[in-house]
């Protein structure tokens, strides 16, 4: 399948640094140059079915993506007998989940200028992806890599899909629960596929924005119903004036709750200016058709006001 691939023996594994649904990731170095890389071993879930389609999609997409805020796939290597396949990525120092956990342990939070720097870079990467007709579908802290100099890299493209216009249906069972958009949470449970687009990424960015400000997850739901309730408690309960068709979607819920008519974002984030609240509100908009796009969010005046974006440099 990869006839021109080099061997994994060109790399020395140093430490296991992560494991996901579709593979295990190691810190490694190239034997010849000593350069650090990240090596992801592709998980073969069922060898009788051949090479995983998820890995093929990831490889194909990453081979065509080149952007400062997208992790770079260097090459695909195999074992001598080609029984195992590894993706070799550029090395990054850590991820945002680790950064926030470390700051939480030290009882500190990111400064607003640092939040701006991180958020703007995430949006830069998403503008590039969405302009390329690609949605990530699994944005979360552990999938945003971070270098000591403050550079952000979007990673883990195992759930990534290309989309088209008009939209075609996809499975709603995507995006880690805490970052999952309302249109995915509230869809008819009997439907195996629904139509959606880049709005699912933008909702996740809104959740990331809130988490960067708080130092902890914005909506840490225990399950799907709890996730929905937490969203309504902060943003208010949607109706057809806010999001056409939402009242019908709410009938799918098998719980009773008291509607909450107001958004409490301003109370939750008193450190944000009017521009900052507008950006967060636009990202966490219930209606995916009205939700801020990556381009609109990136061009928001929030990034032009003081304090200006300044990276968190890790010593």
UniProtKB/TrEMBL annotation:
ATP binds at residue 40. It comes from the Eukaryota. Pfam families: Pkinase (PF00069). Its EC number is 2.7.11.22. Keywords: ATP-binding, Kinase, Nucleotide-binding, Serine/threonine-protein kinase, Transferase. It is an enzyme of class 2 (transferase). The keyword Transmembrane helix does not apply. GO terms for cellular component: nucleus. One of its GO terms (molecular function) is cyclin-dependent protein serine/threonine kinase activity. One of its GO terms (biological process) is regulation of mitotic cell cycle. Residues 11-303 form the Protein kinase domain. It catalyses: L-seryl-[protein] + ATP = O-phospho-L-seryl-[protein] + ADP + H(+); L-threonyl-[protein] + ATP = O-phospho-L-threonyl-[protein] + ADP + H(+). Belongs to the protein kinase superfamily. CMGC Ser/Thr protein kinase family. CDC2/CDKX subfamily. This is cyclin-dependent kinase. It comes from Galdieria yellowstonensis. The lineage of its organism: Eukaryota, Rhodophyta, Bangiophyceae, Galdieriales, Galdieriaceae.
